[in-house]
Amino acid sequence: MTPDISLLRVFHAVMEERNVTAAAQRLGQSQSTVSAALSRLRAALGDELFLRARYGVEPTEKALEIAPDIAAGLERLEQAFRAAEPFDPARTTRRFRLLLGPYTEIVLAPELAAAFADRAPSARLEISPIGPDLDPRALAGRAFDLAVGRFDAPPEDLVVSDLFEDGFRCIVAPQALPEGASLDRNLYETLPHVVVAPPGKWRTGVHKRTEATGLHRNTAVVVTHFLTAAPAVARLGGIATVPARVAAMTAGPYGLRNAPVPVDLGTFPSQIAWHPHLRRDQGHVWLRELIREVVAEFTSPG
């Protein structure tokens, strides 16, 4: 088969959207045009590629096998065209795809979305969860531009650097901690705790830190997302130990106290990771600089 870029773009869009109608809208084509392109691909490759599913389509094993190479090839073509012309954030329609950990998505995504709206209004920002672990192929294959999270053992073939740090605070139900009262160690260890345990390795390390200091948590509920902690604490009448920025964002809306942890648990880092083949990509350079500017704004005192 002689590669036809238009057909490969259709394949890539359907693979990502898992829906022919959504893929057609994304490509600015009619659904019949996309269906015709898929028929040509099926005939050329001798495989169905996509099978009907309840809410769209599901890729076959063959489609899953060739998808990474097609995505990487299309991205290389796009990068070649981008390199041939100066990057102008005010005019670009480029799509930027980020992998974010559970914590960094909460604190970074709103500010980054506002920055994009102000500086690159025609660009498209897409955020996806990192998953249980950072797969360097997602960045090497250029399916994603970069990742932000906590990487205990980052892959050696990626550029990884510290972005910012955060500490820990307690969000406490007001009936458990009256106005003016202090949260001492005895009360901390007595109250029912909502423990946040994100999936995979994307954790802040609070469990190891409380164990190391001998601080006990009377676990009542375990949840997987930081944003679930505040409403759970409010209904339970208990407490949760969360990153300080999460506490600042969620305590007020749920009428909770934002109190210091009775024992110093230190801080944890958030890092940025990207593949070195994007080092000179002007759009990627702009993205990295923008993220650092956004972080500098919300980490500056006051």
Question: How do the strands and helices of this protein lay out in sequence?
Answer:
Elements: H1 5-17, H2 20-27, H3 31-45, E1 50-53, E2 56-59, H4 61-83, E3 95-100, H5 102-119, E4 124-129, H6 136-140, E5 146-149, E6 159-166, E7 168-172, H7 185-190, E8 192-196, H8 206-213, E9 218-223, H9 226-236, E10 239-243, H10 244-250, E11 257-260, E12 268-274, H11 282-299
Parallel strand pairs: 3-4, 3-5, 8-9
Antiparallel strand pairs: 1-2, 5-12, 6-12, 7-10, 7-11
Helix pairs in contact: 1-2, 1-3, 1-4, 2-3, 5-11
Word description of this protein:
There is one protein chain. The protein has 302 residues and is of the alpha/beta class. The chain folds into 3 domains: 5-83, Winged helix-like DNA-binding domain superfamily/Winged helix DNA-binding domain (Arc Repressor Mutant, subunit A, Orthogonal Bundle), CATH 1.10.10.10; 100-161 and 272-299, D-Maltodextrin-Binding Protein, domain 2 (3-Layer(aba) Sandwich), CATH 3.40.190; 168-266, D-Maltodextrin-Binding Protein, domain 2, CATH 3.40.190. It contains 11 helices and 12 strands. The chain has helices at residues 5-17, 20-27, 31-45, 61-83, 102-119, 136-140, 185-190, 206-213, 226-236, 244-250, 282-299, and strands spanning 50-53, 56-59, 95-100, 124-129, 146-149, 159-166, 168-172, 192-196, 218-223, 239-243, 257-260, 268-274. It has a 5-stranded mixed beta sheet with strand order 4-3-5-12-6, with helices on one face. Strand 3 (95-100), helix 5 and strand 4 (124-129) form a beta-alpha-beta unit. It is elongated, with a radius of gyration of 23 Å. The model has no long low-confidence stretch (mean pLDDT 89).
